[in-house]
TrEMBL record:
Catalyzes the condensation of pantoate with beta-alanine in an ATP-dependent reaction via a pantoyl-adenylate intermediate. Its EC number is 6.3.2.1. CDD domains: PanC. The lineage of its organism: Bacteria, Pseudomonadati, Bacteroidota, Chitinophagia, Chitinophagales. InterPro entries: Pantoate_ligase (IPR003721), Pantoate_ligase_C (IPR042176), Rossmann-like_a/b/a_fold (IPR014729). Coiled coil: none annotated. This is Pantothenate synthetase. It is found in: Cytoplasm. GO terms for molecular function: ligase activity. SUPFAM superfamilies: Nucleotidylyl transferase. Its main location: cytoplasm. The gene is panC. Beta-alanine binds at Q61. Keywords: ATP-binding, Cytoplasm, Ligase, Nucleotide-binding, Pantothenate biosynthesis. It comes from Rurimicrobium arvi.
Amino acid sequence: MIIFKTIPELRHYLSSRKEAGLSVGFVPTMGALHKGHISLIHKSKEDGCFTVCSIFVNPAQFNDPSDFEKYPSTLPEDISLLESAGCDVLFLPSKEEMYPQGMEAAPSYHFGRLEEVLEGAMRPGHFAGVGKVMSLLLRIVEPDALYMGSKDYQQCLVVQDLCRQMGLKDRIRFIACPTSREPDGLAMSSRNLRLSESQRARAGIIYQCLVSLQSKFDSGADFGIVQKECLELLQAKGFETEYVSIADAATLEPMTQFDPNRKTVALIAAKIGAIRLIDNLNLN
Ligand code: AMP
């Protein structure tokens, strides 16, 4: 694996690979890599792509400064995981490399209602920051395929909309990869590293709530009642819940009733101590 820290060197190398006829698969990350991230690398490799991973903890997408400061960094381990997975290139830019004129000067994109609901409501400015960094990364890497995790469901919708706004929708194949989970169902996340042993032991409840929502979906159960059960379960385990939502899978507009005829996703965000976890499950 070759590591690049500057944009011109990366672009020069990638253009030679593209001229050689290779298809470029791109996996953007913020590091502290786990098996979930690596599953995206594997998918890109399985698809026959020359695979580029980026690690950049993007300050523009953190609405909570302490979350940014405490964001875990495990670079030596990340490099060896990427090498074992057969990743071809790691792009490791500094903040100055990505934002030479400051973050404000980077391009701004807006995503309408998509950036106002759920994560957008709880983390003001978050998706504007995702839009900034992803627009820069897509212009730098110019991938043929973009691999992102369904774990961040709303982010997948936002980035697909970004590709459309950038006129790249037909040039980049967007691949939403399934969520990798721990044996108790907890979605793998870099933030899990910050959970204490006791918090970790309770964190599987988020997935249990999602499965319970899924199991009630077809039965026509009252969503309000099922939602209340989830809120109580999460509270009993010491979680402060930000949302338990069932929403239209394309727009994320909240639904108040289960409707088996509409593509629907259940999404949860909850905090245990200072650590905020999110997860989701398709209901049909
Ligand atoms: P992050 O480093 O958290 O920005 O994540 C980088 C990419 O990995 C994003 O596309 C995430 O959705 C994806 N990802 C994070 N956790 C998982 C997981 N448990 N399973 C699959 N993909 C994941």
